[in-house]
Amino acid sequence: MEAGKVVQITPLIRRITAGNGSVFTGPGTNTYLVGDEEVTVIDPGPAMGEHIDIILKASKKIKQVLVTHTHPDHSPGVRLIKEALDVPAFGMLTKTTKNQDRTFIPDRVLKHGELFKEKEFTLEVVHTPGHASNHLCFILQEEKFIFSGDHIMSGSTVVIGPPDGNMKQYIESLEKLKDYDVEKIAPGHGDILESPHQVADWIINHRLEREKKVFSALQDATRGTPESLVERVYADVDASLFPIAKASLLAHLIKLEEDKVIKREGEEYIYETVS
């Protein structure tokens, strides 16, 4: 995927990938332009002037900006668009400020199930907490596309980082997506994905298999922390990624505690069935 290139995905959808590729963002953050005469921007990405200029030049008229979540690679570009144009931006906020874009202030906080009924299309708001508590997906009804933000990425699984990230909610939100009539995924990172329901099932199974490894490792050790368990649980992952993996490992431990399968004492998690 080439950063800065405007790619026509469908008659209603264009994609521009920001030049912020990294181990966290893959080839870069995807910004989507929906519509032709009046454009809805989904995730303007980081506050990179060059990227925002391309968004502005590619749009005849920007009506509004929608934000899937407020991580620093998705929403800071809102501020630059607002400096150039008098347009509203919509999304949700989180209770925590850790790893969040503190510059984003929505003109209105979105609610699950509401519709944006535009001249050319309709977008439905779906609240999908898990990767972030304020995470939203948007469904383009006419073309049966779901803009998944970081709920589903292409090429890798997403990091679930507590306290704002929650593994139990993440799996529940993946199950929720299977209730919708969608045919393709436009992810926040990477290329278009086919068969959304199958993709959701694969991720759920992958997460549950990883959870089994977490539980098995804790059974053997009887007690542990993400730091002490990560090498065994993520033996299939390059050691350079362990600092990232520890966040999701913690999310799995918290889920197991919520499921009353293990318990916690201070910073340690203990294998002991809670009655």
Low-confidence stretches: none
Which strand order does the major sheet show? 1-2-3-4-5-6-7
Could you say which overall geometry the principal axes of the C-alpha atoms support? elongated
Secondary structure: number of strands: 16
Order of helices and strands: EEEEHEHEEEEEEHEEHEHHEE
Name given to the CATH homologous superfamily of the largest domain: Ribonuclease Z/Hydroxyacylglutathione hydrolase-like
Secondary-structure class = alpha+beta
For the record, the CATH architecture of the largest domain stands as 4-Layer Sandwich
Radius of gyration: 19 Å
End-to-end distance:
51 Å
How many helices? The count is 6
Major sheet description = 7 strands, mixed
In the CATH scheme, what's the topology name of the largest domain? Metallo-beta-lactamase, Chain A
Helix fraction, binned, reads 25-40%
Average pLDDT value?
95
CATH class (first level) name of the largest domain: Alpha Beta
Strand content: 15-25%
How many domains comprise the coordinates?
2
Structural notes for this entry:
The longest helix has 26 residues, at 196-221. The protein has 2 domains: 6-194, 4-Layer Sandwich (Metallo-beta-lactamase, Chain A), CATH 3.60.15; 204-270, Winged helix-like DNA-binding domain superfamily/Winged helix DNA-binding domain (Arc Repressor Mutant, subunit A, Orthogonal Bundle). The strands form 3 sheets. Strands 1-2-3-4-5-6-7 form a 7-stranded mixed sheet, with helices on one face. It has a 6-stranded mixed sheet with strand order 8-9-10-11-12-13, with no helix packed on it. A 3-stranded antiparallel sheet has the order 14-16-15. A hairpin with a 4-residue loop joins strand 1 (6-8) and strand 2 (13-17). The N and C termini lie far apart (51 Å). Helices cover 29% and strands 22% of the residues. With 275 residues, the chain is an alpha+beta fold. The chain has helices at 49-58, 77-84, 167-177, 196-221, 226-233, 242-258; strands spanning 6-8, 13-17, 30-34, 39-42, 62-66, 89-91, 108-109, 115-117, 122-127, 136-140, 145-149, 184-187, 193-194, 223-224, 263-265, 268-270.
